[in-house]
Every structure is written in C-alpha cells, then in structure tokens.
Amino acid sequence: MFPNYIAGQHGGISPGEKTRSAARTKKALAKIKQTAEQAEVESTEMADLPQHASDVHTTVKQLFTEAGTNIDGPPLRELVALDEAIRRHRGAFIDNLAKLDQLDTDIANAEHELDGAEAAADPAQSRIEQLLSHLHNERAARLEAASVNRKALRSQITHIRETVTRLLNDDTTLAERLCTLFREQGVTIASLLTALGFIISTVVLAIQNTRDGGGIMPAPSPTTPSEHGAAEWVKSN
Questions:
Q1: HEC-encoded secondary structure of 45-92
Q2: Hey, where are the domains in the chain?
Q3: Fewer CB in a 10 Å sphere around the end CB: N or C, the chain?
Q4: Where residue 55 falls among pLDDT bands split at 50, 70, 90?
Q5: At what angle do helices 227-236 and 74-119 cross, to 10 degrees?
Q6: 175 burial via Cβ count (<10 Å: 0-12, 13-18, 19+)
C-alpha cells in the first residue's frame, strides 16, 4: 500500500524537490499531531476511541504515501513501530467491545427468561440464575480487559504525538516555536508554562548534543524495527 516508498532514496533529487518534499512531510506530520491530539481528549467515549485510533493510523500512512517520506532514520522507524502497536491494541480493543455488546444482549435475554421462570415457578430457574452469574462474571472480565486496551491505545497515541512533535521541532527554532505558541494561545499561565518547557527541553537537548557529539537522544519507546523491518511494515500496510 506504499508504492512510493523506496528505502534510502536520496540521490538524483534536485534542491527544489527536496524543499517541496520537506514541506509535504512537515504538513503530513502536523496532520498526524492534530489527529493524535483530538484522539487524546479525555471525554472521548470508549466506543469512539477505535475510530480515532484508525484516523491516526491513516494519517501515519499518508506520511509515507502522499508526502513520499522515506523511513531512513530512528524517529521515523519509531513512528512505524508505534503505529504497529496502535493497530494491535485497536484490534484487541474492538474484539473486547464486540464481546461486551454480545454479553449485554445475552444478559438481557437471560434476565427476561428468569422473570418468566420465576412467575411460572419453573425448575429451570436455578439454571438460569447460574447462567446469569457466569455472564456477569465474564462481562466484568471483558470490561477490565477493554479498560486495559483503552489505556494502552491512548498511551500509543500519546507516544505518536510526542514523536511527531519532536520531528517537527527538529526544523523549528526556539524563537519560532515560542512565537507560534503565543500567537495561538495568547499569554496565559498555561502558555507560559509550555514556553518554559520548550526552553528547558532546548537547553537539555543542546547539552546532550554537546556531550554525545551531536544527534538527539530519542525518548523511550517500543522496540523499533530495523530499516528492513520498516520496509516490510510499509509493504504489509
């Protein structure tokens, strides 16, 4: 599904095309960040989260199709790994939500059957009560599993937003980031705290670059695929 992807394709590209490609990549990254931020809203209903996760996955795919971005560096391979994790957690989450819906239907049917058995003094009443107990226990277990899936899914979405933010900030000066922040949010306590965070992170990264001889230390993340593994991810999606 990624026909435009060619690992390590850099040669033979004109400066103008490089500039246009960089602009497309930046736009695609900004879209991923915006979509991830929407998915992180605390008020998001449990049933709506899989769609938000799907939207994030779609924007990640667009980064490598429409923007023609190559997976040739650790941050982008990290993004691929996070996207793979989102797909796994989303699948498990959807399975548990579907099972919860089925259990709710089964419980409603069993309760209706129990009402009839009680009214008719049916000897099957004990069997129905045992079935209801089993169904309620299974529902509680499925609900707990879905809650774990939800937390894991939101965590991966947050990691994607943080990774994309780091990629976007690589090509943005501190002054530009502060100007954008205050232009969008105004001068508030929240924006001032965010600005302070920008300044601290910039100083820390500068110290790390000096200590390590260059390069940004990536944030902790799931095991990222190798360049070959990234190419396989592209082909399989």
A1: CHHHHHHHHHHHHHHHHHHHHCCCCCCCCHHHHHHHHHHHHHHHHHHH
A2: 15-236
A3: N
A4: very high
A5: 50
A6: exposed
The model's pTM is 0.60
Q: Report the chain's mean pLDDT, rounded to a whole number.
A: 77
Please, are residues 86 and 154 in contact by the beta-carbon 8 Å criterion? Answer: no
Q: For the CA atoms of 127, 128, 131, 137, what is the dihedral angle to 10 degrees?
A: -120
> What's the CA gap between 177 and 93, in Å, rounded?
36
Q: Closest Cα to residue 23, out of 168, 164, 175?
A: 168
Tokens 């200590």, residue located: 211
Q: Which two structure tokens, joined as six digits, stand for 181?
A: 């922040």
In 3-state terms the chain splits into helix, strand, coil percentages (rounded to 5) of 75, 0, 25
